[in-house]
Amino acid sequence: MPERQYAMVVAVPKTQKGAFNPDRRISSLIQAQLRHIREAEKQSLPADQQTNIDISKLETERQASDYLQKVMARLHPQGARKPADAAGEPDGAKEE
């Protein structure tokens, strides 16, 4: 297969090592995302399958991430993370 040609390639700098901070307070963008996901949760899941997490109490990126993972696993169970196998590797990660 021939190599694909692109009209423009944009160089993206590497993220600084200290940039990842899961205990950082959530931004207004993340708060908006949480509101959208909460609405999707309420509209798409029966009451007994909802997380019942009060998103107004979420303060850190870690808490927001945990909530988003729980909701997305319920909304899209086929994409939920699978437990590691006995060798400690995620499903499908073994080499043949």
What does this entry look like structurally?
The radius of gyration is 19 Å and the shape is extended. The model is unreliable at 90-96 (pLDDT under 50). The two termini are 24 Å apart. Helix content is 33%, strand content 0%. By secondary structure, the protein is mostly helical. It has a domain at 23-77. It has helices spanning 28-44, 61-75.
SSE topology sketch:
Layout: H1 28-44, H2 61-75
Note the main attributes of this structure.
mainly alpha, 33% helix, 0% strand
The largest pleated sheet is described as: none
Rg: 19 Å
Number of strands: 0
Q: How much beta, percentage-wise?
A: under 5%
**What number is the mean pLDDT?**
86
What's the order of the H and E elements? HH
- Tell me roughly what share of residues is in helical segments: 25-40%
**Ends distance:** 24 Å
Q: Helix- and strand-based class?
A: mainly alpha
Quick one: overall form? extended
Determine the number of helices (DSSP H or I, runs of at least 4 residues).
Answer: 2
Low-confidence stretches: 90-96
Task: Give a brief outline of the structure.
The protein is an all-alpha fold. Helix content is 33%, strand content 0%. The radius of gyration is 19 Å and the shape is extended.
